[in-house]
Amino acid sequence: MSLRQHNSNGVLSFQLGSTLIEVLVSLLVLSFGMLGMAGVQAVSLRGNQASYFRTIATTLSVDMVERMRANIVGVADGDYDDATGAATANCFTAIGCSSAQMARQDILDWSATAAAALPLGASVVCLDSTPTDGTAAANACDGAGSIYAIKLWWDDDRNGTADQAFRTTFQPL
């Protein structure tokens, strides 16, 4: 918008500039742009958190497979099949412990790590002919076959239910 006025010499001149409405409209457009950027940032952070939890679940699965490979006698005897963890002091002394005791100690340590590293983290190791099923509440391990399923669940969106799952299998030779 321009405003006509005469300067000191009597010559007609125009004054150019912004009105208050133009400034407010530009601030409004800028505000919507910033809100959009904040929304994109929030989605990005949520995606990064989900990726982090999936990485933790992958690492925990590999950890359990390595524990089982180190105790192959316990694996062959079925000591890891849907076992409840139990502390065994002898496993950390020169006396040592049996393969079954080592399996229960492994499950105890591994489950505690999963529970601490993942929100509402739940885990199970079991023989399972259908390793891709089950939930944190009902792991659906059937004890059949020779393939061990390593299943982890956690609350990815922090809504109070362990609804995200990671499953892998291990078949001893």
Structure report:
This protein has helices at residues 20-70, 72-76, 99-117; strands spanning 2-6, 12-16, 122-127, 148-154, 164-170. With 173 residues, the chain is α+β, with helices and mostly antiparallel strands. It has a domain at 50-170. Strand 1 (2-6) and strand 2 (12-16) form a beta hairpin. The radius of gyration is 31 Å and the shape is rod-shaped. The N and C termini lie far apart (83 Å). The model has no long low-confidence stretch (mean pLDDT 88).
Feature tags:
single chain, 173 residues, alpha+beta, two-stranded antiparallel sheet, 3 helices, 5 strands, rod-shaped
List the helices and strands and how they pair.
Layout: E1 2-6, E2 12-16, H1 20-70, H2 72-76, H3 99-117, E3 122-127, E4 148-154, E5 164-170
Antiparallel strand pairs: 1-2, 3-4, 4-5
Helix pairs in contact: 1-3
What's the helical proportion of residues?
A: 40-55%
Low-confidence stretches: none
Distance between the termini: 83 Å
Q: What structural category characterises the helix and strand content? A: alpha+beta
Overall, the morphology is: rod-shaped
Strand content: 15-25%
Helix segment tally: 3
- Computed over alpha carbons, the radius of gyration is 31 Å
Oligomer: single chain
Mean pLDDT: 88
**What order do the SSEs take from the amino end to the carboxyl end, as H and E?**
EEHHHEEE
- Biggest sheet: strand arrangement: 3-4-5
The biggest beta sheet, please? 3 strands, antiparallel
Tell me the number of strands. 5
Q: Concise description?
A:
The protein is built from three helices and five strands. It is α+β, with helices and mostly antiparallel strands. It is rod-shaped.
